[in-house]
Prior knowledge:
The protein is an alpha+beta fold. The chain has one domain (8-147): Metal Binding Protein, Guanine Nucleotide Exchange Factor, Chain A, CATH 2.170.150. It has helices at residues 50-54, 64-84, 91-107; strands at residues 8-11, 16-20, 23-26, 46-49, 58-60, 113-116, 127-130, 140-144. A hairpin with a 4-residue loop joins strand 1 (8-11) and strand 2 (16-20). Helix 2 (64-84) runs antiparallel to helix 3 (91-107). The longest helix is centred in the middle third of the chain and has 21 residues, at 64-84. The chain is globular, with a radius of gyration of 16 Å.
Amino acid sequence: MMSDxxxxxxxxxxAGLEVKARYTTKGSDQIAIAxxxxxxxxxxxxxxxxxxxxxxxxxxxxxxxDFMAYVKQFLKAVSEKLESIGKxxxxxxxxxxxxxxxKYIIGRFDEFQFYTGPKFSMDGGLAFSxxxxxxxxxxxxxxxxxxMKQEKF
Length: 153
């Protein structure tokens, strides 16, 4: 759902991962490899969010009630997974940080967009997008860091 080639940092007690995305032009002759690449718009393509486009994320609609029902089950599953892989000592910090992140999202719920991966599976986690600062060059994405599977290429 994301790559370390995008500007990112841990947040919410390291339970969250904040990723800076940028608007880019799809279909032009120019190609963006990562968020930090500067692309001039030649006017020949559709404007998209680089993270959404690169990882084929799909926007979904959730009410606050739906989100809370989802996140309760999801965070329980992540805690169980941490325990099963021998990272039980991480669970208290994860729960504390994840709770802060959920409260943050709920507090600004109308500003957020929600995304699943390319297979529309919510079991793999969601990406949460919002415009953090007006002057940002694109939206900021939040992920539950402990729920992400790291792959090295």
